[in-house]
Amino acid sequence: MSDALEEARRVLRDRQGGGARYDAPTAPATELQWARLGTAYFARLLNGLSDDALDEPSTVEGFSRRRLVALVCYQARLLGELVAWGRSGRTEPFPREATVTVNELDFGIIQPSRALRNLFEHTAIHLNVEWRDMSDADWQRAVRDAAGHEIRLGQTPLLRARTIWSAALALRCGARQTDVPSGLDLSLRLIDRFQSR
What we know:
This protein is mainly alpha-helical. It contains seven helices and two strands, in the order H-H-H-H-H-E-E-H-H. The protein has helices spanning about 5-15, 30-50, 65-85, 100-110, 115-130, 155-170, 190-195, and strands at about 140-145, 150. Strands 1-2 form a two-stranded antiparallel sheet. The longest helix has 23 residues, at about 65-85. The chain is globular and about 50 Å long. Mean pLDDT is about 90; it is low at about 195. This is Maleylpyruvate isomerase N-terminal domain-containing protein. GO terms for molecular function: isomerase activity.
């Protein structure tokens, strides 16, 4: 990195103040970019859907658009909680299995559309803040869930990117495969990534 670029970044950070958050130098920059771009893309699609259109089917069997949005919301919440747990340095397992549950989805789909849209925005922001608060060491940590599965925190941006882009395509409202970032593998079937119990 050039000295001029590093100096420009230092000046920007000084101007933004101590409360600004930045990714750690060793954070997985490409995967974070994919996840953040996917979140913005999904938000645009979601904002373009009427409340009634949320109840129409997605391309995932058994999932309405509303259920798919709920899944995206609760996955962001879950990943944010996992990251926070890992950053805390706790050694005991995360207190639940690291999967979005059917109960969460069933609760999500009965929420008013406005509440579901707000949940999407809130959980996306929370997850991004958790990522920004991670140190270099945090990105190397792993968390065990209540079922004994190990989740590496450094893989959470890729997990999120695959989910959010797959869900955007599954909404059936104008997303195109050509919009998916080059290099992001979405070859797993959507429902395989959305294993909910």
